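Hi C.,

You asked whether I'd gotten around to modeling the 408-residue construct. I have! Everything is below, sequence then structure, no commentary in between.
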Amino acid sequence: MLPGFRRRLIIALVIILMAAAITLTTGSGPQAMLVALFGGIAAVLVVAIGEYGDVLAPAAPVPAAALSPSIDEMLDAIGEPVLVVADGRVSHANSASRELLGGHIVGEDVRLAIRHPGAAERLANPVGGAAQGPVDLVGLGTLDQRWQMRVARASGGERIVHLVDQTGSYAAERMRVDFVANASHELRTPLASILGYIETLGEDQAGADRAVRGRFLKIMFDEARRMQRLVQDLISLSRIEAEKYRLPDQPVDLAALIEEVRGELQGAEQVRTNEIVTEIEPDVAAVVGDRVQLSQVLHNLIGNAMKYGAAGTPVTVALQQGNTGIIRLSVADQGDGIAPEHIPRLTERFYRVDAGRSRAAGGTGLGLAIVKHVVERHRGRLDIASTVGKGTTVSILLPAHAGAVTKG
């Protein structure tokens, strides 16, 4: 028993014994009965009131230090690197900063902890009253990482150093700059060629020679068509990106679409159109899609396979339906294949494994980038498998239409 309860029990027993002694001395009349009754009630009240008092009594106050999180706990809750600097040394560092800079940085001079000339210059100067802009740090951590350092002053005189990872933003900006530069170059090259031949044709001797004039006009026409294809692909890519978050909701019969695209390519009188072979399973369900964009995907994939597949070998277009309601479309060629290091970059805009061969074949460098964005809009998946010397297979997985019946 608890000490408090034992004490109350002893007091109750004393009251009962006193009531019994009074009862014995006063006899068994009504007065004795009243004494015994009040004694028993008093004993019960002593125990009960004490017990309820223990329950209702406020608990001992918890020290404020036990309730408040420590500085280290608060800093560790922040996902980005944060350091607290006092008297030029790192007094606290969260787990993200220790992972980036090393576990030894606590207690070090902050300029040694963050080994970067730009950081050292800012950290060597105390933070004044005026707000100071962030400092960009290139190569901190790894060579391809970009960080932004922000320094603020706490009320106690400490400095709080916050490192913000800007690698993703830098990569996106670099892609934008590269895209503009590549697009400008791709447009400028045929334009310069056209202008040069026009200037040559303006001369009396070249313009008077029928054969020379015909050859120059043919080159100018080809270059103009090249510019036209590039502008069309740029417009298509821009439109697809603008519709990226608007899901298509129409059923598209891919089997019928494959035959339609095959007929269009054969009608264009291309050299290898008769080598297109289709392997379409019967009763393949429709997919949820945008018919125009899926047609563009087929044109790009089959066109690439015809350009880079070996002459005289088939370009195989296959359509299958899996047990989970996923439709697989694949286009395979038997060409030179692609080395593994190039495959992850094939869907980048203007990336070419062989730039000279691509331009000679009439490629714009945007075909697979368009395919990638169309597949992403359709919530599908794009796979590229290739073996050097054997060929390349590009596969697209698309969800079947909601009304389609999956195979058992």
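If it helps when you're writing up: The first helix runs from residue 3 to 26.

Thanks,
B.
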